[in-house]
Amino acid sequence: MSGYFAIPPGYASPVWPAAGIALLAALYWKKYSYLGIWLGSFVLNVLIGTRAIGTINLSIVLVGAGIALGAILQAYVGNVLLQKLFKHPIWREEFLGILALLVLAGPISCMVGATVGNGVLLASHSITGSQFLESWWNWWIGDSLGVLAVLPVGIVYMLKRQRIVLKLHRESNRDRQFASYILPALLVLISTILAFQITKNAERQRLYAVFENDTEIITQRLHENLDKATQILFSLQGLFDTADRDRGLIPVSRQQFKIFTDPYFERVRGIQAVGWNPVVKRGDRAKYEAYIREEGFVNFQFQQRDENNRLIPDRDRETYYPVLYIEPLNGNQRAFGFNLGSESRRLRTLELARDSGGLTATPPIKLAQETGQQQGVILYLPVYELPLPTTTADRQKSLSGYLSVVFRVGDLLETSFRNLVSKGIEFTLYDQPLSEMLYQSNLQETQQNKNAYMAREQMIRFGGRAWEIRFWATEAYIRELSTNEPMVVLLSGFFITGLTGAFSIAQIRNSILVNLLVEKRTYELARSQEAALQAASNAEKANRAKSNFLAIMSHELRTPLNSVLGFTECLKEDMFGPVTEEQRNALETVERNGRHLLALITDILDLSKIEEGKFEIELAPVDIELLCRFCLTLVKQQAIAKSIMVNLDLPLVIPTHGNLQLMADERRLQQSIVNLLSNAVKFTSEGGSITLQVSLPDPDHPFIRFAVIDTGIGIAEADFHRLFHPFTQLDEALNRQYEGTGLGLSLVKRLVELHGGRVGVTSRVGFGSCFTIDLPSALLISVSDDLESPVELDDETEPGSGSIPESRSDCDRADHLDPLRGEDLVNLWAPTLKISPHLPIVPPLILLADDNFENAQTIARYLTNRGYRFLRAGNGREAVEMAIDYQPDLILMDIQMPEMNGLEAMELIRENPQTAHIPMIALTAFAMAGDRARCLAAGANEYLSKPVELAHLNKVIRGFFE
């Protein structure tokens, strides 16, 4: 980890967290930690030493052992200082005392490691005496910052684990508390590491961009010099091609060759020589040697090298390729007369150049004129007799000789890179594919160079050869270009980490003291809180038990109500014989009160489901006008009985644009509006009026509003806040006069809020009340044949016709609207009903599965009178068997039955191919959230909740047979 913070090019780290970790280990594990500290330091320092020189030796091992001994002594001294300072009064001096503890315990102990470590390095001659003080300072700074960064975090953790400051009681040791103290220091430490990594990466990218640019320049210059060398050869080729071939053995004189080539040596640096090498047959050797001697070179002869690399007269050969012209001659005399064909590498290159007709370079060779250790490369260009040949065979026959440019690779590269190498970029040139080294800028390529911080490779194609240049940046190059940003970020971050840790320790100290002081005083409070929590838990259990009880009781009450209301309906329709008018009135009273009881049970059940969070609404398009008229129809008889005028006030856009609808749960919205209307009828005196008014959204009021306006007794403003509480009546006297449970408005509020809406009220005692339901305008949609979209209304909607007013009105104007008549509702519904006057000739067979005999008898009696045949099953298992045996036309399935419930029975019926086609209607008295979905998922075609209205059941059944 400490090596992670090292800033290249070296391995020295400005922060050494290992020193802090070692001190913490000594504090926590005491004497058992020292062996681990020694081993860790020893292994790390041996690895660092081995990496530096590329091998391991006894000196590295001894140095590592000595430095590791210093690490143990440093941890021991720090441990002793901390143990004493923890018990010292300085601990009681708040934040400054904690900071002093860290400063004294950290940097003082770190002097030990710096002194011992550098003493070992000095004794082993790893550093000189002049380097001792600088090395000691860097070592001490790195260890001290490492201790300051790590020690506070470790002490916070140790206070939690060991409680070494005060004897803490078990109750005061809280994980969350300690986590809150240690978290700031950890966050600062992590932020420091991230910021360091970011700046370090940015610095590396910047340095590499500069390095990459410099190496590109180097490569480009080498390309340029090589290109200039090839231009020399092509120019000489033109000279030879245009020379007088009848002149003699050599068409171009030595003087001409010299005059032509001399200017190039001024323009192209790094070229060793330029030469002409004719093809000489065995019989012509004497002529050529004599020709050159006549030019004044009296000792000239063709030469070759012996086993000791000495030049000797060339042996007898079929063909020679002697160096006859070479410029400049000074410095290249040893190559003068050397037969290029006498050396295999040169000969292969000559043959490749001859056959290809193009520039061809030799692999690395020892030049004839080389007296040092440099590698050489010769670039050949063949010259042919005219006309120029076009095939390989013709080239072999008409070859005249070779023009050559000779390079000493070191001179070429050093000339090309002279200014750039001084910057601190080293390189090695290899001839591929065998990776033969052509040149190395640093004669001693160390392991450090091979693992350089920055390195890259470039490839140069030249004369049919591939040269690879491997560049690396030296430490001097990187230091010259580097900035101190990563170092500044790292040092400042670790310093802030130390300060944050010191502050955390001070906080812990204060928290511990406070916890101990209040521990006794909070004991009773904790007990009382525990009791309160237990009471709250008990209350929650009681509430759940109450909700379950209400749901079960609702089921148990609905079941007998099914028989009561069913038989009442049968009696009214004279199924048991004719009844008198007085009896019919009594039956209507029974039915009305039964319906009222059913409504109360439904409200209780809905409220319990809402409280349990199990209530779900099902949004679907709702016709606003039809909804309002139906709601008024349900309270019309009550209003007629009290001579109350019932009015409907709709915006003109609704009846004139029949595609304007509302996304809502129609049954629940109807339930809410009817509840408000019923209350209005209840609390309005005879001769009064009630208005159901609908208002569409506008910019100032983005809601669709249903307002129920009455001229009743009114409500005091001080009582508004109590209206919507369940089981609450404003006045006991009113409760006795008007009856009621106080449940309805509470349920209305909950149902409207489930739609995302709100309920409001305005009222004046003695003048009446106005209850409003506001639903979000987003629920208002315009329904067309292929589109449902939100409605956009404006004030210029085209007026309609008929008795509906053209705009919203207040309560006074609503009194003059036409009352809703019963036949209006019939006229609205008549087009949508599909009434078939006749059933099939053979009466349909219905299987009724219900374990309650009275309920089954009621339904069977009513539907038998409507022309159906009946079978009864007492449980689900019987229902499955009878469905297979009798193949009924329809099944009425109760859900709650013994042996097998209705859901399981329906699933089995649907799975059986013999009965899968039979339609099924599910009947249940639970009516809990999700019951409908579960029944339909089990295979039911329709779902009805008990008590079932027999006329409605008959209508649903008839729909399956029409």
Salient structural properties:
Beta-Lactamase; 5-stranded antiparallel beta sheet; 52% helix; 962 residues; single chain; alpha+beta
Question: What's this model, at a glance?
Answer:
With 962 residues, this protein is an alpha+beta fold. It contains 28 helices and 27 strands. α1 (17-29) crosses α5 (129-162).
**Spans of 5+ residues with little confidence (pLDDT < 50)?**
88-93, 162-173, 733-738, 785-838
> What's the helical proportion of residues?
40-55%
Whole-number mean pLDDT? 78
**Alpha carbon gap, first and last residue:** 84 Å
Number of strands: 27
CATH topology of the largest domain: Heat Shock Protein 90
User: How big is the Rg?
Assistant: 53 Å
- Domain unit count: 5
Structural class call reads alpha+beta
Oligomeric form of this entry? single chain
CATH superfamily of the largest domain: Histidine kinase-like ATPase, C-terminal domain
Give the helix tally. 28
